[in-house]
Amino acid sequence: MDSDLTLDFIIIIVLIIANGLFSMTELAIVNAKKRRLEEMGEAGNERAKKAFELAENPNNMFSTIQIGITLVGILTGLYSGATFSAPLEEFLVAHVPSIESYATSLSSFIIVAIITYLSLVIGELVPKRLALNSPESIAVVVAKPIYWLSVALKPIVSFLGVSTEFLLKLLGVTIKEEAPVTESEINKMLTEGVAMGAYEEEEPILVENIFHLADMDASDVMTPRTQLKWIDLNASEDEIMEVLKTANHYRIPVGEDSLDELQGMINVTDVMVECLQGESPLHHVIRSCMTEPLLVPESISLMKLLNTLRNEGVHETIVLDEYGGFSGLVTLHDIMEEIVGLMPSGEDERQEEENRIIERGDGTWLVDGLLNIDEFKEFFHIDKELPREEDDLYKTLGGLMNLLFGRIPRETDKTYWEGYTFEIVDMDNTRIDKILVSYVEPVVEQTEE
């Protein structure tokens, strides 16, 4: 009799372990990284190939596992109740006669409690913890057995699949296809990779910046026409030579009286070499070195502009406004800075970038009017929307000042917003050059009730 009970107990444990294997298989394949399985398969691991196939099309696997778990659960419940309840009842009556009247119910309750405990620990919690700890390794091991089991149960699985779809249609439920991976999911994955040491700390920042390119347009990074050095074909040779010596780009535009009368682009180095090697007049050299510029609208996204520059094989482009007027210049260097951060091309540019925001000893800041509005908000930790920011009416702090004043301001003019005081310190003709920024925490008035 004891040997029969031992065998029965072993059968129950085997059924519970089978339930655990089904649970572990399901969670392992669902949580396994498909890319990792694909790489292992490409390296010649046949089991990984099968695991990847199951991960790509898991519906049959889910149905097979559900059938297995359901059958195992039913068998475990029936077998344990029928096998152990009677012996346990006899044991209880023999040792505690006073409980004879309710020994049947008590023995059933004890058997159910023990089987439930073993099923939860051995059949669910431990297998699932193992699956979450090493999903790819376990998926590779269990892939082939679960595949052949799904083949054997295919008629039942197909019938269940048809029944499920029919019921969902009756309920008016539409099955959604798997959503593509989102930017936030990729960023989260990279952040987790940094925590595990799989990636460098800078990599998530670079990827996030690349995604950000699609949200920016050419006008966000261009050097505006007011800040450009350019050649006027009607200027004297001395004036042209001065521009060549002080140019802030190695390729600069050429116009006639105005940049709106754009004639082309020149390479400053090529012009200087031609001047040193020949005796041709400077104006003639300029015209001979001119090339046709690439023209793009202000509204073009940086991602599309990057592709355009690569396809055209150029490093810079002229940006036109909606009326066809010259708006500014964008270089490949400008776009790369949005990905990797500030890359000053020389000491002068480095100094200029560092002087965009200068903190003074009295707790105020001297800010360049051309400072990008996003950089301004980031530096001053401003989370709320600026006035009319959603309308995209300005790109720089100077543009915000024009909006707040409602006119072109004059030096010493002041305006206020949310505790910030903006004082115009310097004007370059009609352009705001320097702004003095100070901040005082707004006082919240409390009303007595």
TrEMBL record:
Keywords: CBS domain, Cell membrane, Membrane, Repeat, Transmembrane, Transmembrane helix. Residues 1-206 form the CNNM transmembrane domain. It is a multi-pass membrane protein. GO terms for cellular component: plasma membrane. The chain crosses the membrane at residues 6-30, 67-86, 106-126. It comes from the Bacteria. CDD domains: CBS_pair_CorC_HlyC_assoc. One of its GO terms (molecular function) is flavin adenine dinucleotide binding. Belongs to the UPF0053 family. This is HlyC/CorC family transporter. It comes from Veillonella tobetsuensis. The lineage of its organism: Bacteria, Bacillati, Bacillota, Negativicutes, Veillonellales.
